[in-house]
Amino acid sequence: MIISNYEVLPGKNATLRLPVASLPSGNRVNLFAHVYRSKKPGPTMLVIGGIHGDEINGIEIVRRAVKNGMFRKITKGSVIAIPLLNIYGFINFSRGFPDGKDVNRSFPGSKKVRLPHVLHIP
Ligand SMILES: [Zn+2]
Question: How far, in Å, from the CA of 12 to the mean position of ligand 1?
Answer without folding.
Answer: 31
